[in-house]
# Entry
Amino acid sequence: MSKQFELLQPPSDGISKLRFHPTDDTKLLVSSWDQQVRLYDAQQNQLVASHHDHRAAVLDTVFGSNRAFSGGLDRRVLAWENYSHTREIGCHDGEISALEYVSSGNMLLSGSWDCTLRAWDSRAQGGAAQIAKLDVEERIYSMSARETLLAVALAGRKILIYDTRKLDAPIEVRESSLKFPTRCVKLMPSSLGFVCSSVEGRVSVEYLNGATKSNYAFKCHRQPAEDNVDLVYPVNAVAFHPVHHTFVTGGSDGAVSLWDPDNKKRLKHYQGYPTSISALDFNASGNMLAVASSYTYEEGEKDHPPDSIWIKPMTENEARPKAKKN
# Structure
């Protein structure tokens, strides 16, 4: 198996999001606190294009059809047309924390610390672009879209589930079973439920109404310390394998773990990254995992390793769940 490698020309300040293209295995989008959005060819280890048109840190980026979208602390939603020039689609009244794209309706969804979820026609120009604005009462921390479902994680530990074809009200409202703020929410590839991670070294696996499986939660990304006390780290990122439906978590302990949600087992533990894992994503085929190692300031200002992006090749069986024992 080929070894993982570090991408050349990484961001110069905190990496906020990694996104592989939904069908092209090699295209990788990266947003960062240096106000830039970058497009890499992950296979060739090449920076293909970048733009610096945001006026502050970029917190999220997502692929659309022949374009990418981004948003962040300057409160603007930008479209990066053909990865060559940008245009402003719209703006929020607060910082934009999360973006998702629904290809079936050419719809971009943006979540903000202004406590609103907004939907945009990604093809429209100017003020005509906004097609919905929903008041969700709390700051949006994380979002995940898959087919016609959208999961929205709020500051007060609420999780809202929407049908993107009818955004007027959520189809489910949940309170996370985790007692601390949500860091990341990710819908399962089966659309039967979602995985949630928290700042306090825990992950929950939760199923939507009508599913026959039971919810559960587990501790992770912890290290033993003195007097039988664990050092507990935030779990910053979650990504599902597109073929085997196992998932990885990345923590501020600088480690990545691979989990089998059905058998409730950890399959792999990848250690040795330079600092906190801030973002993760599998490519469409599941044969590459992108890992952002980028200090997330849980210990305040201190000297830390430079930001880096690692591409980890995945073998056919590496992410496969173990067969259940009779």
